[in-house]
Amino acid sequence: MSTPITIYGPTFSTFVRSVMMACELKDIPYEVTTEINGEKIEFRSAQHKALHPYTKFPVLMTEKGPIGETVAILHYLENTFGGKKLYPTDPFEQAQVELWSGISGIYVDTDIVRKVLLEYIFPKGENGTVRADVVEAAMPGVENALSVVAEQLGDNAYICGDEITAADLILIPIIDYIEQLEVGKPKVAAHKNLVEYIENVRKQDFAKRVLTS
Ligand SMILES: N[C@@H](CCC(=O)N[C@@H](CS)C(=O)NCC(=O)O)C(=O)O
């Protein structure tokens, strides 16, 4: 087996999961770690800043240097490794994948991950409790994000058609998380196609190995 590529970040991160799923689909051996060259890199430290100017993860370590930002990493993997294609060659279709990668990684991420999920992961209420008012205030944004995604999905298996693409890899971890939250489950259930989408994905090996990690 060839040397695994190194992804810096924690496995619970949605964006780290996107890169992990790309590796799974392309059959690229990989490791996910917070240690680089045997040294623990603390989040938001100077060493982390040297890997990503905004101290974000994932960061892919390559022979030529670190690559931050999920979309940049996904393109690098696509251009460097074979296996499952994550981007169509047709320019218009490719632009759709970029569009839905952007929508998922910016707007859907903000409304679902930043405003709701992170409140559950890092509760900021009294005695470490989830702030119910914050979650409630975020619900219209969650509903809107899910509606936007469900409308685009339509009757297709994936967000840009019949084939899985990079855009799905960004979207899947977000939908997977919110669907498991008590407050999120009924919101996802309001869209039958979205439930079918996430159930279909969860059955597949590339996702099973990542979403449960
Ligand atoms: N635009 C970035 C977003 C990455 C991002 O926000 N990652 C989160 C984890 S899911 C993170 O680094 N959080 C730590 C922080 O903001 O300090 C990308 O696509 O990679």
What keywords describe this structure?
6 strands, 9 helices, about 210 residues, alpha+beta, binds glutathione, globular, Glutathione S-transferase Yfyf (Class Pi), Chain A, domain 2, about 10% strand, four-stranded mixed β-sheet, Glutaredoxin
How is this structure best summarized?
With 213 residues, this protein is of the alpha+beta class. The chain contains nine helices and six strands; from the N terminus they run E-H-E-E-E-H-E-E-H-H-H-H-H-H-H. It has helices at 14-26, 46-51, 70-80, 91-121, 132-153, 166-180, 185-189, 192-202, 205-211; strands at residues 5-8, 30-33, 35-36, 39-40, 59-62, 65-68.
Low-confidence stretches: none
Distance between the amino and carboxyl termini = 22 Å
CATH architecture verdict of the largest domain: Up-down Bundle
Shape: globular
The count of helical stretches stands at: 9
| Share of residues in strands | 5-15%
Strand order of the biggest β-sheet = 2-1-5-6
Please trace the helix and strand order, writing H or E for each element. EHEEEHEEHHHHHHH
Instruction: Fill in the CATH topology of the largest domain.
Output: Glutathione S-transferase Yfyf (Class Pi), Chain A, domain 2
Largest sheet: 4 strands, mixed
What hetero molecules are in the model?
A: glutathione
Helix content: 55-70%
- Oligomeric description of these chains: single chain
Average pLDDT figure: 96
Classified by CATH, the class of the largest domain is: Mainly Alpha
Please tell me the total number of domains.
Answer: 2
Rg from alpha-carbon coordinates: 17 Å
Category by helix and strand content: alpha+beta
Topology, number of strands: 6
